[in-house]
Amino acid sequence: IYPTAKDGSRAVAQEIAALIKAKQAAKETCVLGLATGSTPKYLYAELVRLHREEGLSFRNVVTFNLDEYYPIEPDALQSYNRFMKEQLFNHVDIPEGNYYVPDGTVPKEKIKAYCEEYERKIEAAGGIDLQILGIGNNGHIGFNEPGSNLNSHTRLVTLDNSTRLANAYEFPNMSQVPRLAITAGISTIYKAKHVLLMAWGTHKAKIVRRAVEGHSSDQVPASLLQQHPNCKFVIDEQAAQELT
Ligand code: F6R
Fold first, then answer.
1. Which residues line ligand 1 (CB under 6 A)?
2. 67 a catalytic residue
3. C-beta of residue 219 within 8 angstroms of C-beta of residue 146
4. Which residue, 38, 30, 57, 61, is CA-closest to 200?
5. What is the pLDDT of residues 27-50, one digit of tens each?
6. Where are the beta strands (DSSP E) in 73-179?
7. Distance CA 112, CA 149 (A)
8. What backbone torsions phi and psi does residue 35 show, to the nearest 5 degrees?
9. Is 145 known to be catalytic?
């Protein structure tokens, strides 16, 4: 628990930087699983600062993002492909071709094969060393909404209405919020060697409590992380205020 979101984000950035450097020293690739949304914005800003001011290099980094709306063009204002370029990829030295964000333009009949290929790419890269997560107000991780199966893989999902409402601020109006998304599955997340879930603000306090102290259940997907062998929640004091 950190005093503020910025403090927590700095700590996570330090952890990522240490991992990248350790992998560099071992001449290995560092595979990161990344999230979008408001939660990781400070983290990405801090990683960009570490690159610019402290010489942190991303040349040995490969990244896989959790999710993307479907359908959506990659340059749409709300696209997670665009978000990642604007927040991180355009500002660091990660080689083009080393970062993957699900493609919201894949024709529907090809989505199943596309998602299987996404999983294969993660495995071919050596698996995710460190997965960054946010948490939805309903406990979703990635876009794995309540009821998502522990064995779920990357797939096309229907967004909960509560998720569409929470994300409506990004769109001109509610009717334009996509109903579908491509998301990495719970099992995809579970296979990561190390998981860091971040949450900031009083509006996340209730769901953080349910995820950490509640019964582990697929009705609160983040609570399934209680069984992960190497998972940490990094939260600010506001998000911690309901913890007992
Ligand atoms: C986004 C993602 C989602 C968000 C969650 C919280 O890639 O995977 O699970 O992390 O919806 O969103 P924010 O951070 O906007 O509160």
1. 35-39, 66-67, 134-136, 140-142
2. yes
3. yes
4. 38
5. 999 999 999 999 999 999 999 999
6. 99-100, 130-133, 155-158
7. 17
8. -120, 165
9. yes
pLDDT tens digits, 81-126 = 999 999 999 999 999 999 999 999 999 999 999 999 999 999 999 9
Q: Is residue 139 within 8 Å of 218, Cβ to Cβ?
A: no
Which residue among the candidates 67, 68, 129, 236 is catalytic per the annotation? 67
CA dist., res. 123 & res. 144, Å (int): 20
**Domains of the chain, with CATH numbers?**
5-235 (3.40.50.1360)
Mean pLDDT of all residues in 189-217: 98
State both tokens at 106: 């894949």
The pTM assigned to this predicted structure is: 0.98
- Enter the tokens of residue 17: 């930087």
Residue 38, both tokens: 């408001």
Please answer whether residues 122 and 64 qualify as being in contact, where contact means their C-beta atoms are separated by less than 8 angstroms. yes
* 212 contacts: CB under 8 Å, gap ≥ 6: 223, 226, 233, 243
Tens digit of each residue's pLDDT (9 = 90 or more) over 210-222: 999 999 999 999 9
Which one of 100, 143, 171, 224 would you pick to mutate in the ligand 1 pocket, going by the greatest count of ligand atoms within 8 A of its CB? 143
